[in-house]
Design goal:
single chain, mainly alpha, two-stranded antiparallel ribbon, 2 strands, 73% helix, globular
């Protein structure tokens, strides 16, 4: 596993890149929802270049490569092939390959989603909303690409939660914050993608992943409530359904945010930020109930068990 300093660096490395995954798509809420909708700076995300808005240019040029890089770095760190005996390394290599394939599917899905700019150009700038070509583009955008993005993304995050080594006492409040932020962001994301119904199976999958992680940690004599990825998954599973219900209660349906009136878009942009903050604070405050004995430091001897979780 290397020296103690290396272990600490590995933890910070994976968590830092995980924060990138959580907040990479938040530029939409900030650029379009807050700066555009609330402050009236629509030109930041709505300026057209070659018929494509700056909002979507950012998605194509910055968001997609950044998401791949972050997921790849996490996968590389979680399934560290230099850790453990050779037998465990072979098993770890297989798990790493599954993770890498899932990441590839996510990025492939975001690539297919570029059909979105063609659909928008056709509909908004040429008035074409029907016909075989338009229907094909719409299917690739609203149907195929969203499944290809969401399903493998949720799978690989659960895959990390199940197989990552223990990360005890590492940024405990940050773990809750990232879970809340990601739960809110993905709730809005699947609603925008017209796949709001993926919320329930996603929560079930992440809940099962957290349960498996808790069981594995218990076998090592570790309280999962002190573990970073368990805390993240717990926060995510609480926040995503709350965010979906809040959206439904406020707008009366799961209408896509991009189709809301300007006032609705502003409310959504503000709501994402407010719900993330409130969710984090509520979870941190309620910890006195669900984790009253949280340790604030990595327990002595934890370094001896961190190599075993991914066996």
């Amino acid at each position: 596993m290397g020296d103690a300093g290396g272990a600490v660096d590995g933890r910070a490395h994976a968590i830092g890149w995980f924060a990138v995954v959580v907040f990479a798509y938040y530029y939409k809420a900030v650029l379009v929802g807050f700066l555009g909708g609330v402050l009236g700076m629509q030109w930041l995300g709505g300026t057209l270049i070659r018929g494509i808005s700056t909002n979507h240019w950012i998605e194509i040029i910055i968001y997609c490569p950044l998401l791949w890089l972050a997921l790849h770095q996490i996968n590389d760190n979680v399934f560290d092939l230099d850790r453990g005996p050779s037998r465990d390394r072979r098993a770890n290599a297989r798990r790493r390959l599954i993770g890498e394939f899932s990441v590839a599917l996510v990025i492939y899905g975001t690539g297919v989603h570029i059909a979105n700019v063609i659909e928008i150009y056709s509909r908004e700038q040429r008035g074409i909303e029907q016909g075989d070509v338009y229907n094909l583009v719409y299917f690739l955008d609203e149907g195929f690409s969203h499944y290809l993005q969401f399903v493998p993304l949720f799978f690989v995050i659960g895959w990390f939660v199940i197989h990552d080594r223990p990360r005890l006492g590492v940024y405990p409040t940050v773990a809750l914050f990232l879970g809340a932020a990601h739960g809110v962001e993905r709730a809005v994301g699947i609603i925008e993608g017209g796949k709001w119904f993926l919320g329930a199976p996603t929560v079930v999958w992440l809940g099962v992943a957290a349960w498996i992680r808790r069981r594995n940690l218990r076998r090592l004599g570790i309280d999962a409530r002190d573990d970073f990825f368990f805390r993240y998954a717990f926060s995510f599973c609480v926040t995503l359904p709350v965010a979906q219900l809040a959206y439904l209660g406020r707008f009366g349906s799961f209408a896509q945010p991009s189709k809301l009136a300007d006032s609705g878009a502003r409310m959504m942009g503000i709501g994402v930020i407010v719900l993330t903050v409130i969710g984090t604070c509520a979870l941190a405050a309620s910890e006195r109930w669900w984790n009253p004995r949280r340790r604030r430091a990595v327990p002595a001897g934890a370094g001896h068990v961190t190599a075993h979780l991914t066996r």
